[in-house]
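Notebook entry, structure prediction.
Reason for the run: the old model in the group folder had no record of what sequence produced it. Starting over properly, with the input documented here first.
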Amino acid sequence: MATPPSPVKRRSRGALASRSPLRAAARMEQQLGRALCIITGASRGFGRAVAKAMARLVEPESVFVLVARSGDELRTLQTELAASDLDVRCAVADLSLEGAPENVVRAAKEAFSADIRHVILVNNAAALGDVSRCAKAFTSMAEVDSYLSFNVSSALCLTAGVLQAFPKRSGLRRCVVNISSLCALKPFRSWVLYCTGKAARDMMFKVLAEEEPDLRVLNYAPGALDTDMQFVARTKTGELSLRKAFSDMFDEGQLLTCEASCAKLMKLLLEDKYASGDHVDFYDV
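New structure, fully documented this time:
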């Protein structure tokens, strides 16, 4: 996820790499166990990094359901993960379309087995939207509805479907992760769609945490990542000062790798000390 730059706590790639948080997390005694992992937006970027990191922390014969619109990229990742003695399924789906969340839930139910002890859903799929225009330019309800359908509605419907398919029972841990952003907390000019979507998702999962006390819910903001989305941010953002800030971060090597940020997420999941529903930023860990 692209996240607008914060004026504090910037660190270089070199400093992040030297800390090797993923290797440290992998040495921890606690693991994710025999798990069913459902990851949206898994074909590239942060979602792909999450899938590869989780594959190192689950027990053999765990099940992965990888969700994205790009079938070819999903199948490439499927081949990589299957070599780790995992059952990896691809669910090629456009989550903005009616029925897509149900199809993903169906694939997860088909993959589930009685020996699975941990269900993990990572709601990573999202779009930046048109960041070239300010709020007063969005007069088309169809355009806004289409954005919110993919970025908000599908996440709620998929999560609800997963929780219904795998209800609370003894011996089964359940965890829902929302990949959030600083944009969920702070407004940025010309980013009205993205900020609105991220804020809505954060609150949605906070409500879920209140309603389901046995469920572990985490809103994780991964920081400004070196991804295709960040390229769009630094070339298309309508607010020129924000576009320059993104460009400066890229030029100065201050963007985070997906792997470095993902390692922090794995640390949070392994230690399991966050308050359910919390918004936790990369720099908080």
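Summary: The two ends are 17 Å apart (CA to CA).
The old model has been moved to the deprecated folder.
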